[in-house]
Amino acid sequence: MNNTKNNEDNSDKLLRFLDEFLKQPNTDSFRKQLLEILIKHSNPTYQSNRQIDAFDYLSIKTDTDALKLVDYRGITHDQTRRILVADGQQMWRYRLGTINNKIEFLEYCRFAQLQIELMINYYLWRKSKNNLDKALEYITKYNPTQQFVYKPGSISSIGFAIKWYTIRAAFNLSNRAEFVISKLNDVRNVLSHRKVGMDKTNKEYYNSFVAEQDFDGVFRTLDEFKNEIIQHINKKEDGSRIKLKGPKVVGKIDLSKFEKK
Questions:
Q1: Is the pTM value of this prediction over 0.70?
Q2: Which residues contact 12 (CB under 8 A, 6 or more apart)?
């Protein structure tokens, strides 16, 4: 009991010290190191809102990329939201190069796609009220030629290509978002399933997408897709859209030391 009380007292003192120290000039290097320590020791199974608040508290500012996290507070199912935030944090570990000491665009994309897949499953789960038959009806509504020779065991076991066709038909995604998500799925297949069966045109698009390494474009697509998911779940009877907040800007961090030489 005494140890717990001492830890709480020490934590309060440390936070007060940090609050004052970070107000001082010339603390950029310390801010970067502190952020990296927080990311390194974050627990992906832990509810993320308190972790995000800790990042906000630091108000980290340096000269380059802004560290952004998709704001998943509109996802009301706790377990789904926790997984989404954990995958979002993992994306940034690969972006910052804190895993394997190098920036990894493909892994960044793979974790973006995992979030896309989970959000689609969540959307169909909510839309069907966790009724598999209703979910299949919804899919065939937007894809009348789709036939299921064998009934899937769950929404999550329905092939991504089938669900993605439905979402593209039901949603009003930008052409760029549709393209990026299709490439994210290719990346996931290559990394997770070692799938390399692409025709010549798709292979060229894939290679171009990978070579471009547009981290920010992938993030914008992920955030756009999250907004569409929440909008369609909460669509009002008159068809009007609800107002959503943008991504949480956590701060800025110098990525130059991680860039390839």
A1: no
A2: none
Q: Which residue has the tokens 């076991």?
A: 157
Residues 174, 163 within the same domain: yes
Dist CA 151 CA 132 (whole Å): 9
Residue 171 CA to residue 90 CA, distance in Å, equals 27
Report the alpha-carbon angle 162-163-165, nearest 5.
Answer: 70
> What domain range includes position 29?
1-102+245-261
Q: Parallel, antiparallel, or unpaired for β 248-252 and 66-69?
A: antiparallel
Number of domains in the chain: 2
pLDDT tens figures, 9-51: 788 788 888 877 877 777 766 776 776 666 555 444 333 443 4
What are the b/e assignments for 202-222, b being 16+ CB within 10 Å? eeeebeebeeeeebeebbbbb
Q: Are residues 129 and 90 in the same domain?
A: no
Q: Is 185 found in the same domain as 73?
A: no
CA distances from 25 to 15, 18, 21, 28, 218 (A): 18, 13, 9, 8, 34
